[in-house]
Amino acid sequence: MDDLQYGTRNKRGDWAPNEPAGTAPLFAYPPRPLAVLKWLPSYFLPYNVLFALSAVAWWRFVLPDVEVMKTFSVGWILWLFVVNCAALLVFFGVFELRLYILRAQGNRFKYNGKWPSEQKSKAFFFENQNLDNMLRTFGTGMPIWTAIEVAILHAYANGYVPWLSFAEHPLYLFLLALVVPIIHETHFFLLHRTIHWGPLYKWVHSVHHNSVNPSPWSSLSMHPVEQLGYLGVAFWHLIIPSNPLLALYQLHYAGFGAIPGHVGFDKVELTEDASVDSHAYIHYLHHKYFEVNYGDGLIPFDRWLGTFHDGSKDGEARMQARYEKKKARANAAAK
Ligand SMILES: [Zn+2]
Ligand SMILES: [Zn+2]
């Protein structure tokens, strides 16, 4: 595919789409029902459906009987950990292998002209972004992911929280499944905005931002505190009356779903003329500029708070104006 039909490349080799990044029309005011109808398929495909199905697959093929999950034992917990790691290795690995190791589509649709593997940085373990990102993902990310999963399943199995069945509450649980991404977006935005606050940024969130030029393994490369906060979105299903399957879906949506924002390419080519949109641009701009796009755009939080950057010249000007204002305020406070 010719990426210059869809965007432009600057002298540094960075590619940017012609179309400014948009937020979903779901919460637009005044309401835009037609736009919502047109947008709906992209709400479900491919990621929502994929992560919902993966939760079903875990429920059916990976998890032990409820009786077993009533007690903590090394056997089923270790099994779950191994399956989670293997699944993540395959899922993230496919993107990494195709786009970054085989470079199957060269730098077509690649936001950043540089390849992380060719840039050493002291910010990373062994000065290597990929190695650092993988160590954090498997060293702390996957144990935390599995611990959250185990805690939730254990709570349901023992009846510590109400377990609504699909047979008795089909409509309610169906609607709750539909809002899983909305729960995610709200939780992620609030957490993310909080850890951008000075001291927390320094202590916790700066680890994730070491990857200024993110690639697939950057997705869950975070400080353990952030990993717990981020993947802990699934705990909402212990507070809201729910079903463990939906908690699992919420967890997979956060865990496996972290990749689209960090893939580094605007489109992933499938064949000569077919591709899937990654929807990565909004979060790519966050990694590039830090203080814009705290959310992923499903709910327009950043538009409401004036921190949205759509990648256009106007967006750039708005960001600069905001920085100037902030600087002026800081200077005034220092006097
Ligand atoms: Zn990120
Ligand atoms: Zn951030």
Automatic annotation (TrEMBL):
The keyword Translocase does not apply. It is found in: Membrane. One of its GO terms (molecular function) is oxidoreductase activity. The chain crosses the membrane at residues 42-61, 76-101, 144-165, 171-191. This is Sterol desaturase family protein. InterPro entries: Fatty_acid_hydroxylase, Sterol_Desaturase_Related. It comes from Mesorhizobium abyssinicae. Its EC number is 1.-.-.-. Pfam families: FA_hydroxylase. Keywords: Membrane, Oxidoreductase, Transmembrane, Transmembrane helix. Residues 178-307 form the Fatty acid hydroxylase domain. Its main location: membrane.
